[in-house]
Structures
1.
Amino acid sequence: MGKIELNHITKTYEKDVTAVKDFNLEIEDGEFIVLVGPSGCGKSTMLRMIAGLEEITDGEFKMDGRLMNDIPPKNRDIAMVFQNYALYPHMSVYDNMAFALKMRKFKKEEIRRRVTEAAKVLGLEEYLKRKPRALSGGQRQRVALGRAIVRDAKLFLMDEPLSNLDAKLRFQMRAEISKLHHRLKTTTVYVTHDQTEAMTMATRIVIMKDGVIQQVGSPKEVYDF
Ligand code: ADP
Ligand code: ADP
């Protein structure tokens, strides 16, 4: 499950800074939503409110019917992948992926099962003992995805996860993330300013401008090809 309802969501930082204004969207379980729009249009703010890292000024966020506004981030069953994937440099790939589960007091065998499975899905089996500095950019990005996958969360949030990669790797990782989504079918909200990413990955695209939704539709509907 992972049905999301965003009803009249507004975020005001200070008196005059309304980053998101009356945002309305229903996301069905298993969708891959791409939020796209120019820098400063409110994409990250929207994502951070869903994650619980930013307070919602006004409106309701529901997940599978449950009101989430006041639920702390650690109880939200949401996994997030950032642009700066911030792996722990002193920890192995295995321990990077296991960390969130250790913090949540998962049993050792369950941690091992999940990390091994995620490593298999992401083609990281050979690299589990390595430190992040001994990995390529693409491999590091896979570890960052692995940390999200092992959580087995209801919702993935991704904030420009590919923008630090070169063009070739971006192309490759785009395909991999899509493949991953086909396999796991976890509801995903993905933020980018890159229209190609939106076009190739989204089940539906949400175009934002100045904190407001301008258009919602399938890639075909939005980009008219
Ligand atoms: P995007 O992710 O689309 O680049 P943001 O959500 O980061 O946009 O920003 C939306 C607007 O909110 C911008 O005008 C930005 O300056 C403002 N903003 C973002 N974070 C803060 C903050 N912590 N305090 C005040 N204003 C902020
Ligand atoms: P134990 O503490 O019983 O020896 P753990 O499961 O805690 O076993 O593993 C100890 C450490 O060994 C982990 O923190 C991790 O660094 C490493 N490790 C465990 N399983 C693997 C694996 N499949 N591949 C690589 N490293 C592993």
2.
Amino acid sequence: PPILRLRGVRKRFGLDTALDGVDLDVRAGEVLAIMGPSGSGKSTLLHVLAGVYAPDEGSAHYLDTLVSELGEADRARLRLEEFGFVFQFGQLLPDLTALDNVALPLLIAGRPRRQAVRQAKSWLTQLGLADHAGKRPGELSGGQAQRVAIARALVTAPRIVFADEPTGSLDSLSAEQVMATLLELAKGTGATVVIVTHDPRVAAYADREVVVRDGRISGVGILA
Ligand code: ADP
Ligand code: ADP
């Protein structure tokens, strides 16, 4: 069975229909790229898949969990326990060091500080950032900051990593490196990866891509 399943999903913002009847299955362990023009609904689709938004109509499953019927608090707990997130602008906390930014999700999940710090250090080292652990985001390059964001997304060993234009703010060399690193590490942990991008070079790293147009999938997205 798919790890994520949407059926008949609609999502509106006021009069604006962002998703207009989406069916999509995501397979466990795959890297899925969501492509399409600006404003087509890619971000909204990612947010529904990740349980950030509840759809107005239709159903969203994560494995056997009917996410679309969960309340805010249960969806927040599901996201914290099962998912990792990487955004276009890392959204690192500016007053925390790289190390503390990466440790934070573990601390929020209730892990002991010493264990959280040890795991955060290990991920920073894997991302080539051991020497930058004590720096704040403002002291890092864009590519370094995105690698910190990747460490933070992976530190909880998520089943699924959601990335929304993860390389959108980077030059093309940094973007290539960040994508390669993200996917290599995610594959190493067996995580499923869902990436929103309009960059075909980023999508080239995916196992499969779906194209969103006007709030609908205009490509094959459903498992047989
Ligand atoms: P994309 O990621 O493809 O650029 P989005 O999913 O961000 O598209 O947006 C799809 C449509 O929904 C757009 O018209 C956008 O303005 C609207 N939209 C998305 N998120 C919100 C929001 N939080 N509030 C209001 N409108 C939104
Ligand atoms: P994208 O790069 O996917 O186009 P946006 O910059 O459109 O992303 O959106 C970034 C965030 O703002 C998303 O969480 C999206 O849901 C939200 N958003 C997008 N459009 C609107 C809007 N018209 N009003 C309020 N929030 C929006």
